[in-house]
């Protein structure tokens, strides 16, 4: 008779019970294929040796794969396997358990602001089972409620007192980082690429669309600020193009926003490249193949 495995002694439990492996799995799940240096940059505080050891362990258990994408200078990239993605699903379930059961965590708080009370009641009804919902029927009330503990805000663009984009601009100026979606029934224009929001939503909106947006927004605080900014800028460009068609690419607001995003991404890529160990060695005239140990070669 086959002995039933003891869940408390599972390999999965030993992998997820360490300091760095769960963070590494989450990073690869959210960012996709990454080089060694990219992983090190995303996992602030980890040493090269610890990262190399953790990657080796995950590869040994079939959680992560490693591909050589360049021989000289040597560079490899890592990504989750199917087994790794299953472990990520377990980590997501653990986070959901925390949100539901851990004292002091509870369900995320969502602020819904719209001067159409019928829509406000409908949105609140859709979310009530999974979120702590607070509501506001005008911009000034919404702005006051944002001073409380709000995890995600969904703001109508046209409200008395303060518009949704005015509220978003105001909290950005004071350094508040609440993820924000702006709901709009107004005609989409090329200038909307500059709206100060993480997400833009077009009315009428379905329950599925609202839930998906809130789930995505609730994960944003876990991202690096530059990654969040890039994601928001990309989304706004895609939103405008979806509603206005490819012709919007020739408009001045779109071109400026596209150029600004390209600069940010280029600066980000340059910063990552500058931190790569192989680049420093090349600039010093050394041969990475002879200067690096085999574990350090994984950095490439």
Provide structural commentary:
It is built from 14 helices and eight strands. The chain has 300 residues and is an alpha/beta fold. A five-stranded parallel β-sheet has the order 5-4-6-7-8, sandwiched between helices. A three-stranded antiparallel β-sheet has the order 1-3-2.
Please write out the topology.
Elements lengths: L10 H6 L4 H11 L2 E2 H7 L5 H13 L3 E7 L4 E6 L1 H20 L7 E5 L3 H11 L4 E5 L2 H7 L6 E5 L7 H10 L6 E5 L14 E4 L4 H13 L5 H20 L7 H24 L1 H7 L4 H4 L2 H4 L3
Parallel strand pairs: 4-5, 4-6, 6-7, 7-8
Antiparallel strand pairs: 1-3, 2-3
Please tell me the CATH architecture of the domain at 107-223 by its name. Answer: 3-Layer(aba) Sandwich
Count of helical regions: 14
Q: How can the largest sheet be summarized? A: 5 strands, parallel
Strand neighbour order, sheet with most strands: 5-4-6-7-8
Domain HTH hxlR-type: 6-106
Biased composition (Acidic residues): 284-300
Region (Disordered): 277-300
Keywords: DNA-binding, Phosphoprotein, Transcription, Transcription regulation
Descriptors:
300 residues; Arc Repressor Mutant, subunit A; 14 helices; 52% helix; DNA binding; five-stranded parallel beta sheet; Rossmann fold; Sig_transdc_resp-reg_receiver; alpha/beta; single chain
